[in-house]
Design brief:
Two copies of one chain form a homodimer. Chain A is an alpha+beta fold. Helix content of chain A is about 20%, strand content about 30%. Chain A is built from six helices and eleven strands. In chain A, the strands form two sheets. In chain A, strands 1, 2, 5, 6, 9 and 10 form a six-stranded antiparallel β-sheet that branches. A four-stranded antiparallel β-sheet of chain A has the order 3-4-8-7, with helices on one face. In chain A, a hairpin with a 5-residue loop joins strand 1 (about 35-45) and strand 2. The longest helix of chain A has 15 residues, at about 120-135. The radius of gyration of chain A is 20 Å and the shape is globular. The two termini of chain A are about 25 Å apart.
Amino acid sequence: MRAGPITPSESTTIRRLPARAASTWESIAAILDEGFVCHVGFVGADGRPYVIPTAYGRVDDVLFLHGSPASRMLRTLAGGIDICVTVTLIDGFVLARSAFHHSLNYRSVVVLGRAVEEQDAAAKAAALNAFVDHVVPGRAADARAPSALEVRKTTVLRLPLREASAKVRTGPPVDEPADLGLPVWGGVVPLWLHAGRPEPDGQGTALSLTPPHYLNADGPARRAAIAHRDPI
Amino acid sequence: MRAGPITPSESTTIRRLPARAASTWESIAAILDEGFVCHVGFVGADGRPYVIPTAYGRVDDVLFLHGSPASRMLRTLAGGIDICVTVTLIDGFVLARSAFHHSLNYRSVVVLGRAVEEQDAAAKAAALNAFVDHVVPGRAADARAPSALEVRKTTVLRLPLREASAKVRTGPPVDEPADLGLPVWGGVVPLWLHAGRPEPDGQGTALSLTPPHYLNADGPARRAAIAHRDPI
C-alpha cells in the first residue's frame, strides 16, 4: 500500500468541528479497508440525487465499483459524471446526561470524483478478485475464478482516490458541567459489526460442508474480533 | 404506527431483480426503525452530489433529520431541494462457489423527497426526544430534556415518507449447477451490529455509574439480540 496523492479540496474540507477531521491517507485507507459497503451518490437523468448502497474494493489508490452491465446506476456512473462515495463505520452510542449532547461514535470517508469503466479484461479479473478478498480475505484463491463470459458480464468502474476526507468521532460524551450532578448514567455503548457462525447451504459435496480456514482463522470473524472486541 | 401513504414512483421502482423489491409500508418502517444512521444525498451549490452520514428519527410517516444551524448540509437541505435518504442494514456475506456469484445479504430503504424545517418549538422538542428514543428506547425520559436554548440551537428537518422503496437480499448463494461439485464451501456468514457492554465515562455521581435498565433489558443490546442472534 502506498501513500495516495490525496489532497483535501474545497469540497471535502470539513468546516465545522475540525477536531473531527482525520484525513491522512492512512486513516482514509484504514476506514475503506474495514468497511465493504459504500453509499454512492449521483445525479440522475431527472436531475434528482440518488444514494445507492453497493459493495466496493480498493487496490492502492483506486476504489472499484462493479455490477451488471444492465444496472441503471452503473450505466449512469460510467458516463463520467461527478459522484460521491461515502463509507461509514458505526462505533458506538454516546449517551450524555442531556438529550442535547447525545451523539454517535463513527468513522467515515467521503470520496469525490468521476469513475471510468475498466475495459481491460485482465485488469477487470484482478479487480473482481480484489472485491472478493476485500470482503473475505483469502477467498479469491479458493472460489472458482471468473470465466471470460463472467468478466464480460460484469461492469467494473475505477474511482481514483484523489479527493477524499475522513471524519471521526471517538470517546465519551461531552456534558455541560452543570449536568454532571444529575443522577443520569453517562458513557458509551460500543457497537461493531459482528460476524456470526458460518451457515453452510447444504449444497454440493461433503467436503464443501467444512468451513474453510479463512472463515475461522483469518476471515471476517477474526478480522472483526481484532478490529473490535469480540473474544476470538 | 399507521400505514404511510407510500407509493413507488418511477424514480423508486426497482427495475432489475424485482424479486429483491420489498416495498410494503411495514417492511420500509421496520428497516427504518432498526437502523439509526442514514446517508443523505443532495446536490451542492457547486452542482456536485454529496452523501453525508447522519442520525435520524421516525415518527409515523415522517423521517426527521437534525443538526446544528451552522451545518452546511442542513442549511442546504432546508432550502427545499430534492434529497435522497438511504438506510442500509448489512445481514451477511454470501459465499458462492464461484467468485462471480458472491454477494451480500442486506436490507435497504431509499426515500426521495424534500425536507422542510420544523419551526414549532414544541414539535421540535418532541422530535428531539424521538431521536434519542430511536437510538436507545427509554432514554428520552431519563436524560435532561432540551432547554429552550438547546431547541433553538438545533435545526430539525421533516422529510415526509411519501416516495420510498425497500430492497432486500436474503438466503444462501445461488450457484451455477456445474459449480456445486467443486470442493469449495458455500453458505452465508451472518453479520449484525452488536452492542457491547456499556462503558461509563466515570464522570458525575456514583449513582450515575450504574447502567440504566434500558441498556441491560430493553436497550440496544437487547434489541440487537432479539433482532439478530446474540445470546441475551
